[in-house]
Amino acid sequence: MKNFFYNILAVCLLLAFSTALEAGNPDRQGEAGAYELLLNPWAKSAGLHTMSTSMVTGVEAMRLNVAGISRINQTEVLLSNANYLQGTGIRMNAAGVVQRVGQGAFGISLMALDFGDIPVTTEDQPEGTGSTFSPTFFHIGLSYAHTFENKVSVGILFRGISETISNLSAFGFAVDAGVQYVTGPQDNFKFGISLRNVGSRMEFGGEGLNVQRPSPSTLTSEELTFSQRAEDFELPSMLNLGMSYDFLIGTAHRVTVLGNFTSNSFSQDQIGAGLEYSLNEYFMLRGAYKYEVGSEDEIMGPIYTGLSAGATIDVPLRKKKDVDEVVPRLGIDYAYRATKVWDGTHNISVRISL
After folding, report:
1. Contact between 41 and 93 (Cβ < 8 Å)
2. Overall average pLDDT of the 2-23 stretch
3. Which long-range contacts (CB under 8 A, 24 or more apart) does 296-304 make?
4. Are 93 and 111 in contact (CB under 8 A)?
5. 209-214 long-range CB contacts below 8 Å, 24 or more apart?
6. Backbone torsions φ then ψ of 204, nearest 5 degrees
7. What is the pLDDT of residue 265?
8. What local confidence, expressed as pLDDT, does residue 226 receive?
9. What is the distance of C-alpha 28 from the center of its chain?
10. Within 10 A of 71 (CB to CB), how many other CB atoms are there?
11. Measured by CB atoms within 10 angstroms of the end CB, which terminus of the chain is less buried, N or C?
């Protein structure tokens, strides 16, 4: 019965993969909104250019493949800050907690964008009024994942999306779902699939859409308030498919090779590969390259060059009293992604695992 279930799962995943190969739609590029859903504030997965669909675990899984949140020991707390396109003044701040309960896990994640202070301009004062404003882009995600016999994990996440300035706002909901499959003599082969950002259309509304104009009637000289309607927009949904294999060298060294395919509903598809080296799971180095299929235009092409790199230091906070004891660990992750303009994106995360 167990082998039958795994075979059915494999067939479903292959069908999803074959469908995704034809799913990209570059003709709709730029028609979606809430593109901050595609930004990754977490450093560990950012070092692999957000392509670790098959192997991501813990809090970071809520940004890529929610099935991975159940593959932790007990508890994980993660804080992160990212300098998005250094030189623009935009920052990403994120926090998340995952708690394992039996064979499942619950998680909550928060992310906010900090745009800094933007000058206020008007039709009468295009050079600025002297005042500033700062948009508020905020996400909250609630998730659950379950692992079956340590081989198959499935998960789902519900995310609320809020975009606000002083006189305009939009709100929407999105759902993420994912599967991870682990096999091999030492659980060293992993496969993952995730569907992200499937949800409601969003539309801006508020006083910012009201304008004062002269009355069209010649009987009065008073100005009238006209209310405009904003066009609604869809979310940038995507499908990720990834595989990875761990080459275990002795008891201390691990080299992981991974590949990933991303099908975007509103832009070109992406494909890439990465490599991660681990020494006793205390120190890790990683790097990756991602290519956007069919994107040859220097102006309209992706802002990232495709290269990313990162490192992790993850150490226990105290010595083990026995071999099987799980001790608290402190991890620090860093990632850099090169861009063709500005000075790249830098991520740093601090993680506590119990």
Report:
1. yes
2. 48
3. 298/340, 300/29, 301/340, 302/268, 303/85, 303/339, 303/340, 303/341, 304/49, 304/337, 304/338, 304/339, 304/340, 304/345
4. yes
5. 209/168
6. -80, 145
7. 87
8. 79
9. 21
10. 21
11. N
Which segments of the chain does DSSP mark as H helices, in order?
2-20, 43-46
Could you tell me which residue, 301 or 149, shows the higher pLDDT? 149
| CATH code of the domain containing 17 | 2.40.160.40
| pLDDT tens by residue, 188-230 | 999 999 999 999 899 999 888 888 888 777 666 678 787 888 8
CA dist 113 and 205 (Å) reads 20
CA distance 101 to 89: 40
Instruction: Using the CB atoms, write b or e for 328-353: b if 16+ within 10 Å.
Output: ebebebbbbbebeeeebbbbbbebeb
DSSP secondary-structure letter at 258?
E
- With 0-12 CB in 10 A as exposed, 13-18 as middle and 19+ as buried, what is 239? buried
In this structure, the chain runs to a length of: 354
Cβ atoms of 58 and 72 closer than 8 Å? yes
Work out how many domains the chain is built from and give that number.
1
Confidence at residue 243, expressed as pLDDT on a 0 to 100 scale: 96
- Predicted confidence at residue 26, as pLDDT, reads 61
Question: Both tokens of residue 49?
Answer: 């250019």
**Which tops the pLDDT comparison, 68 or 11?**
68
Q: Is 186 helix (H, G, I), strand (E, B) or coil?
A: coil
**Domain boundaries, position 330:** 2-123+132-353
Within 10 angstroms of residue 163's Cβ, the number of other Cβ atoms is: 20
